[in-house]
């Protein structure tokens, strides 16, 4: 009895307990399912907030109406521009790597020529080599127009970070709008939005003074602004007086060699970098190696700064050479001799020995698209276009085609016009019967070097 | 000593009444902190953008009516060798400080009247020669000035100077935010107008604060998270953004409380209902009366 009563109490307690658990859990479960529905909305909000934060200072703080208006104008501008055929765009024109991501777009340095070609810019849209800046009337009363050497600065910018150094807030790949699109040539006003975007005077000076005072240590107006005086007013770029300090960068002398002897490598302490050879033979231009460097790196102020630097890491030291020399042995660069015999690159090691015709070309003739020299992928067709059975003398390859094959289309053996891959025979022949390249050939093979021109 | 018990109690009672009045007064008269007017204008200084060209010094002298030397003379960098304070004929100065982040490019900072929200100089001025305008500037009226120079002592930023060069009409000199020019003659103060880098932004203080915090959020790698002048010494119309700590660019650390809140509290308490002076005179009178010689013959009265 006592026991049953006890059991009854226990079961009642269990029921009450379960009920309590249900009462507690139900709202939680319901709430969770509700939350699960709400979740995407919340992340959306978070994304919106994030976007808002990422908005460049230019747009931050504008009221919604202005933003909407701006978006509408941008849309209408986009509509008025001729649509770009995406399939015609070569990804490699702008991206260095195979898989660009939003975080690491691996954009090439200022692909100006390509950008212009892609955007279909008319020649008159391109900037002059020298641009006369005289947007301000009050400035024109005191100073002569400022000759801005655009081409020269663009060349220099290649080493410091590309066109985006000055043409900020603009995605690469299109034509850059003039500064005055955002920076108005008006005098300072103190109203809300105008406080956020510098006017044209401020924008020009902020862009220029950053580098100019870095290397010249001078904030003299006369560096750019020649006062009006006895000199006659220039009407064109050509009539500007010659300027020592803005006429241009003195020519940079390329060193023949750069010898480093700070290495402790077992193959030898010396590393000789043949600077001239890399420029002349392999066709590198300055910006391909000297990237992301400021003017001050070479100019006086930076030299003081460079002295007490820490020893660069192994990756920093090798990173610039690795794209080409990744497969080389250490001894290739680390030597016991200060001036080892030059080792010319043997193209045969790549599996494509350069014959008479290709041997006389510079590296960049064929490897022109890639930043660092890499194996070509179908680029032969860049030069070898329009060749067919009638126009190409196959004998120059060392393989003379017999009468059966001389009329055959190139693609029948060289599938997809891939001439660096071995030809296939199974388009016409049964390869199982032993008619296969290179055992069976479509004609006599010339032992000697071919002499005839195609 | 003729102070008997009854007389001592009388004196102590008087002192007690006076003292309590003093305390009461202190509590009742605790002066209200001034809050910035919604229309108050100010200037935001973006210190990292300053290149130390000293054009603002030239423009300031020109706007103040002094005849500045040719603008080219302001390209002289040797003046940076020692820190300068505003001078009677130069109401703003640029000083140079070492940049710990980039030794080759030092930091420049601009010094002039901060145009405090609750200015100590205005509080210290006995004759209201200095006054805070609703639209921001702290202005000086030479016709009222009596030359006490209390404002020079009171200013926490050590800004006002005294022009001794004209012995017959000496006066206090300091930046007036071009109150004599803005907005009738030009839109913005002379230094803001000439600055080639647009280091200075002129606008409503409230909007400038918004802009300053926006800049800190969008470029946290450039600016330290502090707007100097937002709260310092009760807040100022001039606000500063910096890439290095403010104590490294010549600024002092201040409480968020304006100096007048302490000084006026003491002063107002001292004269509340004129009771404390009466108390002191009463005390002194009582002491004289109590210590008076028994025979009145030697009294000086």
Structure commentary:
The complex is a heterodimer of chains A (454) and B (301). With 454 residues, chain A is mainly alpha-helical. Chain A folds into 4 domains: 1-54; 106-223, Cytochrome C3; 258-355, no CATH class; 377-454, no CATH class. Chain A contains 14 helices and 5 strands. With 301 residues, chain B is α+β, with helices and mostly antiparallel strands. Chain B folds into 3 domains: 5-32 and 264-292; 41-83 and 92-112 and 177-257, Alpha-Beta Plaits (2-Layer Sandwich); 120-173, Alpha-Beta Plaits (2-Layer Sandwich). Chain B is 30% helix and 12% strand. Chain B has 8 helices and 9 strands. Chain B has helices at 5-28, 55-63, 120-124, 150-154, 190-194, 205-218, 259-270, 275-290; strands spanning 41-46, 93-97, 107-111, 130-132, 138-140, 161-163, 171-173, 200-204, 238-241. In chain B, strands 8-1-9 form a 3-stranded mixed beta sheet, with helices on one face. In chain B, strand 4 (130-132) and strand 5 form a beta hairpin. In chain B, helix 1 (5-28) runs antiparallel to helix 7 (259-270). Chain B is elongated. The interface between A and B is medium-sized, with 31 and 33 residues.
Overall CATH architecture of the largest domain in chain A:
Alpha-Beta Complex
DSSP E strands of chain A, number: 5
Query: CATH first level of the largest domain in chain B: which class?
Result: Alpha Beta
What does the largest sheet of chain A look like? Answer: 3 strands, antiparallel
Helix content of chain B: 25-40%
Topology-level CATH name of the largest domain in chain A: Cytochrome C3
**What is the terminal-to-terminal distance of chain B?**
20 Å
- Number of E-state strands of chain B: 9
Global shape of chain A = extended
CATH topology of the largest domain in chain B: Alpha-Beta Plaits
Terminal-residue CA separation of chain A: 115 Å
Continuous helix count of chain B: 8
Short key terms for the protein model shown above:
heterodimer; A: 454 residues; mainly alpha; Cytochrome C3; 4 domains; two-stranded antiparallel ribbon; disordered N terminus; disordered C terminus; B: 301 residues; alpha+beta; Alpha-Beta Plaits; three-stranded mixed β-sheet; two-stranded antiparallel sheet; 8 helices
């Amino acid at each position: 009895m006592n026991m049953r009563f006890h059991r009854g109490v226990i079961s009642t307690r269990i029921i009450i307990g379960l009920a309590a658990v249900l009462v507690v859990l139900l709202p939680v479960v319901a709430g969770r399912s509700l939350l699960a529905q709400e979740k995407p909305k919340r992340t959306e909000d978070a994304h919106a907030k994030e976007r808002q934060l990422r908005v460049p200072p230019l747009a931050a703080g504008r009221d919604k109406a202005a933003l909407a208006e701006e978006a509408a104008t941008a849309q209408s501008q986009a509509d008025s521009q001729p649509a770009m055929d995406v399939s015609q765009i070569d990804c490699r024109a702008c991206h260095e790597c195979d898989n660009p991501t939003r975080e690491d777009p691996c954009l090439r340095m200022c692909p100006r020529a390509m950008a212009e070609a892609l955007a279909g810019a008319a020649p008159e849209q391109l900037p002059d080599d020298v641009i006369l800046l005289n947007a301000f009337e009050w400035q024109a009363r005191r100073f002569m127009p400022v000759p801005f050497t655009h081409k020269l600065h663009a060349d220099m910018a290649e080493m410091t970070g590309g066109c985006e150094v000055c043409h900020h807030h603009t995605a690469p790949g299109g034509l850059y709008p003039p500064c005055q699109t955002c920076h108005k040539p008006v005098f300072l006003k103190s109203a809300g939005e105008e406080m956020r975007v510098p006017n044209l005077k401020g924008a020009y000076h902020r862009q220029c003074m950053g580098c100019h005072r870095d290397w010249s240590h001078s904030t003299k107006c006369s560096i750019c602004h020649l006062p009006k005086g006895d000199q006659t007013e220039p009407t064109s770029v050509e009539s500007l007086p010659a300027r020592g300090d803005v006429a241009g960068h003195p020519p940079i002398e390329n060193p023949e060699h750069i010898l480093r002897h700070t290495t402790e490598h077992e193959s030898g302490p010396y590393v000789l970098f043949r600077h001239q050879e890399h420029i002349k033979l392999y066709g590198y231009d300055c910006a391909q190696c000297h990237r992301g460097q400021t003017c001050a790196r070479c100019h006086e102020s930076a030299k003081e700064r460079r002295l007490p630097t820490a020893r660069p890491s192994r990756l920093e030291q090798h990173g610039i050479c690795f794209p080409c020399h990744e497969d080389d042995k250490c001894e290739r660069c680390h030597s016991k001799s200060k001036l080892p015999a030059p080792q010319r690159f043997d193209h045969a090691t790549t599996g494509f020995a350069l014959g008479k015709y290709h041997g006389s070309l510079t590296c960049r003739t064929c490897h022109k698209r890639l930043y660092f020299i890499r194996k070509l992928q179908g680029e032969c067709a860049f030069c070898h276009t329009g060749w067919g059975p009638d126009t190409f003398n196959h004998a120059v390859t060392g393989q003379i085609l017999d009468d059966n094959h001389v009329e055959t289309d190139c693609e029948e053996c060289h599938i997809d016009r891939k001439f660096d891959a071995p030809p296939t025979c199974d388009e016409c022949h049964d390869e199982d019967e032993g008619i296969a390249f290179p055992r069976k050939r479509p004609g006599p093979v010339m032992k000697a070097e071919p002499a005839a021109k195609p | 000593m003729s102070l008997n018990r009854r007389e001592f109690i009388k004196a102590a009672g008087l002192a007690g009444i006076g003292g309590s009045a003093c305390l009461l007064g202190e509590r009742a008269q605790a002066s209200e902190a001034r809050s910035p007017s919604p229309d108050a204008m100010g200037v935001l200084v973006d210190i990292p953008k300053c290149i130390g060209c000293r054009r603002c010094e030239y423009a300031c002298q020109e706007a103040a009516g002094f005849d500045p030397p040719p603008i080219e003379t302001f390209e002289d960098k040797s003046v940076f060798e020692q820190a300068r304070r505003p001078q009677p004929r130069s109401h703003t100065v640029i000083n140079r400080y070492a940049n710990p982040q980039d030794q080759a490019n030092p930091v420049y900072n601009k010094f002039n009247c901060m145009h405090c929200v609750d200015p100590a100089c205005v509080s210290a001025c006995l004759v209201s020669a200095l006054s805070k305008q609703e639209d921001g500037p702290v202005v000086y009226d030479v016709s009222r000035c009596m030359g006490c120079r209390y404002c020079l002592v009171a200013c926490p930023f050590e800004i006002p100077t005294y022009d001794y060069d004209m012995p017959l009409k000496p006066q206090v000199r300091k930046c007036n935010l071009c109150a004599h020019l803005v907005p009738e003659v030009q839109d913005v103060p002379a230094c803001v107008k000439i600055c080639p880098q647009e280091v200075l932004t002129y606008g409503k203080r409230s909007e400038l604060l918004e802009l300053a915090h926006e800049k800190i959020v969008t470029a946290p790698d450039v600016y330290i998270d502090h707007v100097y002048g937002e709260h310092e010494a009760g807040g100022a119309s001039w606000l500063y953004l910096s890439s290095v700590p403010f104590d490294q660019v010549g600024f002092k650390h201040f409480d968020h409380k304006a100096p007048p809140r302490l000084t006026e509290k003491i002063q107002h308490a001292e004269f509340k209902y004129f009771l404390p002076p009466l108390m002191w005179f009463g005390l002194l009178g009582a002491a004289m009366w109590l210590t008076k010689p028994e025979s009145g013959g030697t009294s000086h009265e």
